[in-house]
Each structure stands twice: as structure tokens, then as C-alpha cells.
Fold these 3 entries.
Entry 1:
Amino acid sequence: MLRTLLLLLCSPFLVASATPPKDPEPIAYVLTPEFGKDGLIALNVSVRFRVDASGSAMLGWRDSWGGERRLWQWSRDLRVEGATHEATGDGRWRIAAKPDSVVTARYRIISAHDDDPTVGVSEQPHPVIRPGWFYGIGYALFARPEGSEALPATFAWKGAPAGFAFASDLEHPGRPAGKATVADILESVSIGGHDLRLFPSSDDDGIRVATIGRFAFEPQALDKLARSIIGSQRDFWDADRGSPFLVTAIPLVSRPNQMSYGGTGLGDAFALWIDQGASLDRMRWLLAHEYLHGWIPGRLGKAAADRDEHAAQLWFSEGLTDYYARALLVRDGQIPPDEFVDQWNDVLRAYAMSPARNLSGDEAAGDFWTSPPAQQLAYQRGALLAARWHARLRDSSRGDAGLDDALHAQIADARVDARDPVTLLIASLRSRGVDITADLDRHIARGDTIRLAQNDFGHCAAVTTVKMPTFARGFDADRTAAADNRVIGVDPALPAYAAGLRDGMQILGLSEGETGNPLVHYALDIDDRGTKRTIRYLPQSSNRIDVQQLRLTRDDPDCARSLGGALTPAAGRSRS
């Protein structure tokens, strides 16, 4: 057998006749707007691809994204040229064609909204198609032949009338034709409209900003802020300078007594949903957090594809991102030290008072998509542990290294190691003398409360413990909501009663207050037997609990960097 193998390997005939494998044919996507008499009514999508030698393929959507499990639900009127098709359920179609033939699937995408998206009732996976503009994430817009994510793909936007502009990370200037993959098509954002504002790349930074509609700030201000934060983070990671990146922003119609804004990272873009009443200062944090997702967790290891496994690692992907968003903002002077301390104190207070604080890891992951406290717990736990681990690395190295160094090294490790980011983080910290496995077991798996040490934020601040009242509305919120907001269960011992709230009053709205925050006044607009008035009080119970808080102890020029975890020049700071 060995002699036969050697002859085969050495045969010049076999070497000369070997046919190199053909490059796979790109899957071609085309997006086209569809207009009716009143404006835009749908988006038309065509997907052109070659079936294999079996003559069959499955066409469908990814199982879930952003908590949405039915990404196919806005597709209509599928037809396939050059093949037959039949639905198999859950937005999947079985395609049958001649072996090795090219087929084209066409379908329409309709809007998930009958009106403009509104604060409190909008979700980022849901496509928005309004008479004058549209927004869509690739996961909801584009079907794909199953198993094709790694194949090359092309994209084209066609058929728009004059004055109807378009922006997408699928059309990055300078990207070579055919260099995208189907995975890039899915992980994308596209917006377009008559009043789209597009700010092109400047100074070869690769950054573009595109906005639709009106906000409480000028689009130019958002463009300037985005470039500043993205440039700062690229300097921190020492990567991606000049790489193409798109920031999109669409408006949410404001609602009384509510504020909402959010974003999602998409590799080489992120999509922002912004309350039309939100100030630009609120965008600073959102931009910092979302852009960091370009590194955390994607470049720190192979992220879990399974939805449940992904949820179990959200303390890492969201919590470490939260930690570094604050840290880099204060280091670079984007926020002052007192604002950094205030932000951390909000986190520490919310964590101490969270009803989800001691959920096990399995419980927290299982409740992430349905419970706001469980969702916030992932951010809180990861940020607190990052602060602790940075301090331990700093102290064990006598100020020569910190979490920055461990993560920079982890990025290099992840290029050649296909393990998940949590496993690689454990290895990176262990190689620096810090074992975090006990922390993960106690605080992530079992849900024990995390406590910071006094000097975790360096020489300019101290972690202290204070007694603080817990949050209490002063009435039974669930029963009141079920009774169409007619007040039930007012507690005579609490401030709401002392301020005048009584059973039977009709709540018209909340004009002040933050759910879970006992330090901010509640202001309930009520109808008291025909008389409208406002009842204002602190939503506090008589219970007091221990809450950790951060307090500035010094104010010198290096404090901003120290608070953000940067090592002092004397300690051998290298990258930060």
C-alpha cells in the first residue's frame, strides 16, 4: 500500500492532469424599492444562485437574531425562476431545479409597522417601510440558500427614483467587487429615503454617517461625535484605521414620559434607533458601546452560534463592552471624572437593588430576552467583574499590566485558536497570574453577589458602602395596570400615600421618575374624580440596604486615565 501511494504521488501524469477547483460562483442579491400611489410600499429582493449537482436547495432565513425567531415573517409572494418550490414551514422553501443550474428567487418585504416606529413599541429586527423612507437589517431582508454563509456574494441597489437616496454597509467605497460573503449580506443594515443625509468619509478615516428624519440635534453633530469616538477606539485597539464603517440613525417618535434609544453592532456598521427627543449627550454612550462590539466579543474568540449558548455568554459580550465604553470615554476626555463616577454609581445602585441579582447563570440566560432585570444583569455582572479583574492584574503585576494587555493578547490568540472568548479570556488571565475560574463559578454560574474592593478604580477614587432606601412605587403596579391604570393597593406607610395618592384614582401618565431608582422623584399625573393634578414623591420604602458607591478622592490631571484603568506612565503603559 505504501509503495502504491508513493507512485501516485510521484506520477507526472496525475500532477499534470489535476484540475484546480473552480472558485464558487457568487450569490447575487439585488434590492429594489417598490412604490405605490402614496410612496414606498415594499422592498423587492432577488437572490440568484446555482443549485448543486443534486438539483435541490433549501432557501430560508437564519433561525433568530436580536431576540426575533421569525425573521421571515415580513416576506411575501415568493416565486422562483428556473425551478419549482414548496414551503416547508418557518419561512423555508425547498427548491427543485435541473442539476447545476442557475435559479433566481424573488420576493417582497413589507413593513413590520403601519406607522412610523415609536418609542416603546419598536424592535430593531423589524423592517420599517414608510412612504418616504425605509430601514432594514440584512437578517430580516435577505433569504439565503442554507449552508451558503461562507460563499462569495454580490449586492446591488437598483430602481430608485431621483432624489431617493440609499446607504448600506454593503456598498462600502473601495471594497473590491466579489469580496463580500453571504454572511456579510446578512449582517448588514440598509436605509434609504427622500431626506437621507449622508456624510462621506473624511481624511481617509473610512467612516460614513447616514441619517433619516429629524432629531433633537443636528445630524452634523452626530457625524462629528461618531468620528471622534470611533477614531479613539481604533487608536486603543491599534487597528482598523481607515477601514470602512457605516453609522445609520433612524428616528423613533417620542411618547409622553418615555425615553428610548438603542443600537446594534453589525461588524462594519451599526444601526441606531434614536428617540426624537433624545439629546446628543445620550448618543455618546451609545456610540461608544456599540462600536466596541467590533472587537468584543467577535475578535476575542469564536462566539457561540446557538441562541441559548450565546445568551449564556452575554455577561462577557455586553458586560466587558460596558466596562470599556465608560473606561475609554473618561480616559480620552470625552466625559469628565465626575460623570464617570455618576455612571458607575447608577450601575452599582441598580445592581444592588436588582430583583435578578442572584439568579443563576442558567436562569439569567433563560430570562434574558423576556426580563429587563435579567437583561441588565448581564451588563452589570460583566462590567463589575472586568473592574475587579483589571485591579487584580494591575496589583499582581505591581502596575505593569492590566486588563488592556490581556485583551490585546487575546485578540492575537483568537486568530489561531478557535475556542470561545470566555475560554480564551481564562487562559489569557491565567498566563498573567490571575485565575478567574472561581469568580465565574461563584458570580456567573451560582449568582453570588459581586463586591468591589476599595481601590479597584485606582488612586483617585474609593469604593464605599452606603445605606440606601429601596425602590417602592407605593401602590400595587401589576394590579393597577390590570385595572386600566386605576390605582389599587396604596400603602399608607409609604411616601406615595403621604403625597396624596389614593385607591381609585386614575393614572394618566408618569411625567418624572425612573423605574427602580428610589433617588429620583416620581410624578404621577392623575385624575381624581374629574380633577386633574400631579402627585410627586420619592418612591422609597422604609427598608435600607447596603449599596456600593464610587467616590472621587483626588482631582489631578492623571485622574481621568487612572479611573479608566489606564496605567500611569511610570508603570510602563504601552497601548493605552
Entry 2:
Amino acid sequence: MKKAAIYARVSSLEQKEKRTIESQVIELRRQVLGHDNILVKEYIDDGFSGAQLDRPAFDELRADLKTELFDIIYFLNADRIARNVTYQNLIISEILKYKKKIIINGKDYVENPENKFTLTVLGAVSELERAKIIERSKRGKQLKIKQGFVMGGTFTYGYDYIPRIGDKPGRLIINEKEAEGVRLAFHEYAKPETSINQVVKILENSGFRTKTGNQIWHRRTLLDVLTNTAYYGEKYYNKQKTIEAHNDSSDYLKTTKKKIVKTDKSEWVPVSVPAIISKELFEKVQKRLAWNKKNYRNPGKPFLLTSMVTCGVCGSNYIGYRRKTRNSYNRNIIYHVSYFQCLRRRLQMKHVKTAELLRCSNKQIKTKFLEDTILDAVQNIILNPEQLKKHVKLLDKDVQHKQVEAEKELQKLENAIKTMEYKKSRVVDLFTEGRLPKPSYITRTQDIEASLIALQQKRVNLIRSMPLIRQPALIEENIRNYCEYLKRKFVECTDFKKLRQFLLEVIDKIVFKFDDILITGFIPVGINPDFYDYCEPRHHLRYL
């Protein structure tokens, strides 16, 4: 007698409601008893598609493969493992890797050419069956749309969906409370002096909530309302479609990915619904949106410290932006001023003060002032060994504190390595599932590998540096060599791109909190001044 587990799955909600999974479980239990085995665990995914591998019970099963919980796993059919043949072979290979026995439809599966062929044929039949179901479903849906039916699942602000009852088709009816919000949004934005952000505040002040009941109206949500043709009585279907894009590579491997593309307007299928506003008002709003899109008045501008500054109050990123300012002496002169501002604070300014938001009180700072301050700190402190030495944590007097800090840093690196390894496995899964083309897979894998190697090297160097806690002379020598190396690099920063790359290599993070600017970075371990690919002991300097 061996320890056995069973896996059962149904995909549709209809199957879930009819409890068709119970018949699978009963049959699998019968097979376990018929083979004189002990059933120790049941893995059941009720209402999960076999087209995806990320299913709760299935994930648990794959995790338990590494344990001694069971010796045999039972499946009713191959398509219960997965619909895709490639997925089936991957999972079976993984099960066999951990020396677990596989029973499919009551038969012992052994890794040999005959069974692999049988499994491939069964999997291909399952794929064909699924493709036919999808095709029939799409064809039926398109036929109903052409007959003027409103399809189920419609979730439009301003309307309530009444599902089909018997032969009476589903339909949309006006939700009067939400319809007032729709009319208010269109009438306000039709005014030339009213901006999108002002309309957002008007809706929030008036007490209108989104379809999900949220008090906050985001710009994207409002734009979806202002561009929805259903409000003047015409709801369109077939506005987009999913296509497969193939990329042929030189090693005979064809990669496939799915993407959503917009269909030509001539292919759209209109369905009449109750109108909330006039078509004239809708067209007026569309003209204004089109004009604003064409005449975008604040184009993006690269900033030297982009992605490097964080808020010391709420932890959000600081972003750079420009705004127009008038000359105080001559009001006809208008010029742009650049600022760094907390992203959370910037977003909260677009909503009313009573909005349910996590708020931040940190102030903005002029980009020029922040950049000049950082460059001054780099030249006068980071490039100066005597000044930099004052800010290195390993040279603190409290030896026990230094040891604790080093251990915390080591734990952070180990967590970062685990995260990067998970990202790597996720990219492999996406490529295996056909959701990631090969060129992107290669590029992302190489980037992850490079980051993983760097993190691992940092970890090794940090472990080596821990004995240096009691050797301040050796640390000071590393600081001098590091500063000499940085001076040579800094001289080569003759343009914006090179200077930004230099700062990205030298500075780990810039934290701005009210009037304080905190800069953190790393100093390499090693006495060779020409080798500074990886950085280890953290230098921690504060510039006020």
C-alpha cells in the first residue's frame, strides 16, 4: 500500500454550480481503493481554467511534490493536468523528477515513447476541443450582438444591467443617480475653462461615487466616461480583437504572443441603448479631448535625478515636473520652472480635501537646487576621502552596532536574491506558456542574470567585509582608492547622459524630508583601485 493523492479540476462556473467535480472525485477515490492505496490528500480546483498553470490547488500540489506527503498522484484525464500539450509534458516531467508515480485514467504512466505519444495525441485533441468551444462561443456572441442584444457582463457607469429572463434578452436600464454624474461630467468638461482635474473635484464634491463605490475619481476613470458612446444611445461591440503575432528566429524556434488590436470602425457592431446625453454634447466633448491631445502643452523633460529621489515622509517616489510661471515684473513673460514633488502629494492635489486618501505633508523642491546640492555633496564629500571617512558606518565607534548593521544588510541582499530568482522562474514560465516572445525572453533573462550575479557578488563581498569591522586602517585604504577611482570617472562626465550614469553608480538613494537631504551609497571592498564593479560596505552621509 502506497500513499496516494488525487487532483480534480473543472473550469467553468456552470460546471462549478452543477458540482460536476464531485463525479471526478468519486471516480478517482474508486481508483485509489481499487489499487489498494491510501488516499492522503485531495487537490481540487473548482472553477479554474486548464489553460493556465497558476491554480491554487495545483500550486499546492507542485509544492508538495518536494515532500514525502504522497507517492502516487491520480488524474482522471490528461486534460485535467492542463489543456496545452506543452504544459502537460512540463508537469509530468516535474512529477517524475521527484520520483512520484503518475496514474492517468486508471493507467500507470511511465516515461516511454508510447505513453508520450498517447499523451501528445490526447492533449492535441483537448486543445482542438477548447479551440472549437471558444470559436462557437464567439460566433454565438457575435450573432446575438448583430440581432441587437446587450451581452451579459456589461459594467457601464450610468447603467444597470438586467440579465436575460427566459426568452427575454438582457438589457441596460438607466441608473438615474449615476446618470446625473454622467451629465454633470459632460456639461462641465464642455466648458472651455474647465479641466479634467477640475471635473474630478466637482464629481467628488457632489458626492458621486464610481461604479465600484469608490469616492476617488481618477483621470483614467473619468476619461473612460467621457469617451463612451453608449451615453448618446449607441453601444459598440467588436471594437478590438486578439491576434497572434509570430516571430521567426534563426534557430528554427517560432515564438508566439497574443496582443489586443483595435478593429476598423467599419467592423464595429452598434447596439441601441437608452441615451443619457445628446449626441451633440458628446461630439463637443470629443472635439475638446482631441484638441488637447494634439496640443499637449507640457512635454516630458529628462531630469538628472529621475528615479533616485524618494520621500522621507511617506516613502513614495519623487517625480520631476515643469509648470508655467509669470515674471513678477512683467506679467507677459512666461517661463517654465522645474520641481521635484512627492508622487503621493501630487496625486492628492488632484482630489478634494475630504477625499479618502493617504496624505503626505512633504514639500516640493526646485530641481535646480536639488541637483546643485547633490553635485556639491559628490564633489566635496564623496570624492574627498577625509570627508567621506566621517560618514562610513563601519568606522562608527560602536562595534556591536556595526555588526548588527552588517547582518541586516546581508539579510536584505539575501531577500533581494530570492526575489530575483523568483522573477527568473516567472520569466521562464511566461516563455514556456507562450506569453513571452523569445527575443524578450532572452533580453529579460540576461538582465535578471546580470542583476543576480551582481547581488550574489555583493553578498560574497559583504561576508568578506564583516571581519573588516575591527580593521579601520584597511577600510580607510579602500576609501582612498575608491575616491581616486571616482575622481577619474567624474572627469569623464562631459554630458548629461554620462553624468546621470555616474550618479546612478555612486548613489544608492536620495531621501528628501522637508529641509533635509540624505544620500546613501556603497564603497567597494578590496585594495585594488582599478576593480570597483561591485560595492559593499555602505557609506551613509547626510547633507543639510
Entry 3:
Amino acid sequence: MNLSAQEYLAKLLAKENLSVQHGNYSTASFDVMNRVLRLPLWKDKGKDVYDLLVGHEVGHALYTPADGWHDSEKKIGKIPRAYLNIVEDIRIERMIQETYPGIVRRFKNGYKKLFDDDLFGTNERDINKAGLMDRLNVSSKGRGYVPVEFSSEEAPLVKEAMEVKTWNDVVAVCKKLFDFIEENKEEKEEDDMPMEKSEGNGDPEESSGESSTESGNEPSDDESESEGESDGEGDEEKSKEGKAEKEEAPEGHETWTEDTHREREEDLLEKSPERKYERSGQPMYSSGMSEENMNKVLYSYDVCKALRDERVTEEDSDGYSPYVSNACEEDWSETKKTYKTQANLLAKDFERKKAAFEYSRALTAKSGKLDPLRLHQYRTSEDIFLTTTQLAQAKSHGIIMFLDLSGSMCEIIEDVTAQAITIAMFCRQVNIPFEAYSFTTTSYWRQEATGIREIKSGASEIQAEGVKVVEMFSSKMNKKTFDEAAFISFAIAKAHSYNNKHTAYHISGHYLHAIDGMGSTPLIQTAMLASKITKAFTRKHAIQNTNIMFLTDGYPDGIRIQSDSKSDVQTSREMMINFDGKLIRGQGGRKIYEAVLLRLKEITGATIMGFHLAYDASTFGQGYCNVNEDRDFPDVIKDWRKAGFAAWKNCAGYDDFFIIKINRSARFDSDIFEPKKADTINDLKREFKKFSKTKKKIVKVKKSIFDKSKIEDLAKKSGIVSR
């Protein structure tokens, strides 16, 4: 069910910008002062039923005074609350349908569905043997679907009830109905009196149960129980256990259709499936992330640059910041050459595949014009016309990357950042639009850090305090800005890495700005924000195929939902989240994240890919935990080690999920080749080839290593005898 569409429907019907809130409510309500319409989480019984329910509640919001709501505690004389509910429903439904004739069919079909589901209890009893109010209730709602009969004396009152215009008219008609039923009840009692006397055990006045009620004195609990016991044998409507009803209507004024409706109203609510050892109830509802909080969570590169420059100027002038470290800059000037080499290889392969695609689908057609060079063949060939060849146009692609900057990524953060930078360089070379972001949370002691925006989550919203999604680099940057942004990402990875051998990079996180510090893994919030980012990105660049990449170790944070003081329904451990107008549900962070990814694909139409980089079986398992794999784990590990990667389709919400093997001794930015002691230059060559193969052809080697004189120098240093 599209909640956004229903909220817009409510606002349009109300002709004002009502605040429409869904939540864990037992029934609908309207805050007259604040103009807030609260709607419960109903089961999906079809669009007709939902439009009926929304239209009904908007009718109350527009036309019903505070005293007229069915849950109002205010008493209006001797008129039973059920009378007011029935007649007021008739009034507001007629008025909303007169205002919007197009909704009449929705009401008719919706009530048909509700009667079929026996919401009013009409499948169990003959409605034409019921009292006047029950028949009026069914007739007004059923619109002829359930045949209802009225006597000639009742017809004028029914007509008047169907035409009430104001709340005062509702009260007046209810009083007339009450008096009419009261008069008919007395006449019936007089007709039935001899029968009661003959069946009684004494004076009829003593056996009559009306004296205490008619005198206006309610019977005590003890008296009610004794009455139930003495009359229980002859009255099938009373409980066999002798329990008094919660709000017993005066005798003769019972409205079982209204009572049944209120009792079974809870059956309309969405419920969690029953699970052993878990509390039952409705899924805990969340309205997701507000637009305001999404904007606060997202940090552009320009904003981050200003914050970093301020940090370097004020505190890090001693050179210990990764942003200004000379050692880091020297390393970057060499390492980026490796990234460019890999990007060039990717670009060449991409261009070959693109050209093959275009020519394989090329269309050749005759133009209808004679080819002068073929005219001499007119006697032997019909192919003497000029031809045109139209190459197939490949679809435009775009890439959005989200890089996990949580603390658990320290061991592989250099490798992941290297992958992101290489992909970005490749995209720049082949003119593919791209954007790259890092995501994490702020450490608890930096909540008030400079530049970190204060976030307040409203009722039922997902708490996003401390979440930060930071722009790393993008295709909109010029060359100078991109090189600067790539270096900053490289430096941040160096500062955080556990695997760094250079003492110059052993920098405390204190020297990094708060926006670049590592925290936890808000994958769910980031994936929801990805919807907003991707839609803007696709619209800006007119992308046909968008690829969203998550480079993470695969452990999403659990989420917390801000409590709603108006909630009055018991909730389960399951969560139901409004993600861009549609409800997704799940229990536990991983299941919710999977549901968010599936919904993200629906919204954007993008291909969603997950990448996990692993060194050994232990780090492989962190990414493997979400994979639905039937094979034994040792077999999967064996294949992964042999191939260097493992891939799955349609796994855990991803279209494609990869676990890539990273060799610690063959990192993107590892030290240059240092040969072991060898006897000949051929031994040195074999050792170098082995080193290259281990790195999967991704090796950082300085140009000087290929110079013949340098090889001889290395040979001498290694004790190799030249031959």
C-alpha cells in the first residue's frame, strides 16, 4: 500500500495541508487544535477499503466536533453513545460523498468487502430481526448490499436520519430515535406481561429487573452478578460466566452491529505473525527519515573542505595531520600512478566491449541512391545502391559508490579506498558520471564537535543522530579538485589503517576532523538516503543504467525508532518502516537492510552491488554471513582462494554481491619489489613474475625497476653473479 498516496488523498479531501500521521494506533483520531489526522496501520484489504477508511476519517476531521468522535467521553443526556456514532457516520459519509462524487464507488465497494469479512456480525444473525438502530446502521453503510426492512412507522425516522445536516441535527434525531424505541419497548412489555407473570415465581414487580435502571440507579457489581446468575439460563445473549458487559446499554437499546464493529475493529489492524518465544502485537511503525534530517546527514565536499582547512590551520600546523603530512603526499604522488595504470586497463577493456556492442548491433540499409562505383555491376548484381550503417547506441551509465568508514573497516580501509579511487579514475577517463560517499557515525565524545549538525528525530522517525554521509569525490569536479579530493581520501585511509607500516602514518584519530572519524555502520540510514541521492543523480545526468555500489564489511547497525506518545497498540520486535511511501518490514538489522535494498531498487531502478574485501577465512566469513549458500563453507572458501573472488546473484538484497580476495603482500600501495637473494638474473626474473602474478596484475613498481641498469644494480645488491 502506498502510504504517501493515501496521505496526499487525505490532504486533498480535507482541502488543507493536514498533518497525516500513521502509527501504532488502535483507531483513527483527529487533533482539532493541531490539525493532525492520525491513522492506524490497517491490513491491506485493497484500495477500495483503504480509500473508504481514509475518506471516512477525513469526513470526521472536516465535519465532526470534538464531542462527536466515537471515543469521546462526554455524555449527551440519556442518548447512548452508539446512537450518536451511527447517525454521525451517516452524516459525515453523505457529506464527503456529496463533495467528492468520485469516491462514492470506493465507499460502496469498500463496505461490500467489510460486510463480506463480517466486520459488523451480520453473517451470524438475521439483521431484519434486530432493533431499529442496527438496521439503520447496516442499511446506511451497505447501500442495499444487505437487504434491510423498515416498518411504515420507522420509515420517516430513517429518512430523517439519512438527511441530517449538522451536529445539532444528529443529536435531535438520536433523541427522537431513542424516544421511539422506548415507546415501542413499553408497548411490547405490556403485551408480554401475562407471559412473564405466568413464568415467574412470585410478584412480577419483584422479578422485574427494570426498577433499578429506570430509577436512574446503576446496580452494584454484586447485584449485576446475581442478576446474571438468575437470568442466565433463559438468556442466550448473556455470558454463561455471569460477567457484566463493559458499557451495558439500556434494555431495548442495544446496538450489536456497532458493538461488534468496535470489537472487531482491531482485526483490521496489521499484525506480526506469531512466533514462539516472542511477544505478539503489531510491528513497530516508523515513518522513516524526514527530508530535513536527510539533508543534515549529507555533507558536500565543499563543506567538508572548509571544515578540514579550519582544522589544519588551527590545530595541525605541526604536520601530523594526514591532510598535510609530507610522507603521505610523497606516497600519494607515486601510488596514484598505479591507480591510473589500472584505470587505463579498465578503460581500454571498456572501450573494446563498447565498440563490439555497437558493431554487433549495427544496422545496414540501402539509401535508395545509386552508387557510381558499382554501376558497372548492374548486369550481374542488384547491389548497386549506396548503403548507410547505423551503429547501435549503448545506454548511458552512472555509478554511485558508498564506502564504509566504520571502525571495523580499519583492516581493509586502504584496499577499499584504492578500489574506489581506481573506479573513479576509470569513470573520468571514459566519461561515466559518478559520485562517491563515505558513511559512518560520529563517536559519542564528538557529538558536539564543530561542524557536526544537530539532528532531532520526531515521533516514529528513525533516529539519525550522529550519522554522516560525506561526499568523497565526483565527476562534477575539475581535475585539480578531483586530485585534491582523491588525495584526502587516500590520506584518511592511511591514518585509519591498522596495516600501515609507515610510522609517519601512526596518527591518532584526534588529528582528524570529526567528519572523517570512524564510528559505527549506519547502512540502513545510508541506503535510505541513497534513494534521494540516486534520484537527483539520475535526473541531472539523464542516466539510463545506474549502478549503486556498497563497499562494506556487511554488518549494519540496528536502528532505533523515536517513541510516539500517542501510540496505544502493543508492538512486537518486528519493524515496519515507511520508505518513500511503501511499507517495508523485518526483524533485526540485517533483514531490514535487505528489505531497504529491495525497496531502493524499486524506487530507483538501479543495479545494486555489494563488495566485501577479505584477506582470509575469518574476514571472508564477515561478508559471507548474509549469503544463502547451500554448499559447505570449506568448499566455498576453497573456490574463493583459487579464483580470487566469489560472486552471487540476487543475494541479501543485492543484484550482485562479491567477496574479493586481497593479498596482504600485494596491496595496491605495497612497497616496491624487493628481490630475495638469487644466483642469476633469470632467478630474479622468475621471482618478479611470481610477484606480479600474486598481485593479480595490480602491482606498484617504479619505472626505474624496468631499466636494465637498475636490474643489474639490484642483482649486485642481491648477490647475483651476472652472466
